[in-house]
Amino acid sequence: MASSSTWWCGLVLALGVGALSACGPSSPDSDVDSMGPDLAEAPQAQDLERSLEGIWSTGVSGGHDAETIYAIEWQSVGGLRILRDGSWLAGTVEDVDLDNQTLAFHITRENGPDETVTLRKVQDAASGEGFHLRVTWAQGQTETLGFVRRLTDRDRQEIVLEVRQSAVLPEAVACGGDAPASSLRATLACSQSEFAELDRGLRTQLVELSARYPDGDRTAAAVVQQLDACKTPECLRDAYAQWQTYFDENYDLGDVLDYL
Length: 260
What we know:
Blueprint: H1 4-15, H2 36-40, H3 42-50, E1 54-61, E2 67-75, E3 79-84, E4 87-89, E5 91-97, E6 102-107, E7 115-123, E8 131-136, E9 142-149, H4 153-168, H5 184-189, H6 193-212, H7 216-229, H8 233-250
Antiparallel strand pairs: 1-2, 1-9, 2-3, 3-4, 5-6, 6-7, 7-8, 8-9
Helix pairs in contact: 6-7, 7-8
């Protein structure tokens, strides 16, 4: 005589294949999200990135004339683009932690070490509403940013311009840039941080000057000619200062601080 289990399966087969699963192993839980946790969290991760968009400020001077300014833009294709004091931080988001409201932003540099910066949303304890942004650099330095305002169309144009400039203008660490190798400008830019910073700032402005103004190329050529004619550090320092004053008085060159 057939066992009871054999008889039961035979009865199920007779009633239809729709109930055949009762005779075999259990199927996986149908309630499990087939997308998996990573894909399921993707929209929330984008929401976190998008919430950081705007102009942010440290609110305190770091030894310069003004506080440090961040311009953060979010794009559906490409993610975050970040400018710090007008300079593009070329990088991408490599991780988003929704539980801790943090994201890891990996910065890549052509002339220098890459590093991962952590941005964290911290709720304002006093009001219980709104939040500030805490930036932690790879070596442990931190900045606390307060929200200033939303991005304007002009801000977005400046971000696009800076990104394009950065594609053709290496970071300042590239020792003197276009200066002749034997020139005083190249020597000082490669050996003294003061002149490296002056040269980087001026070269960035020259690229924008050439791109935005009809007389930009002619003016840029005159600047380079005067700088490379200097034979002493004092002459070079004065030339940088004079041209910076001239630019401030005659051109509207990009600096996110101008738009606050």
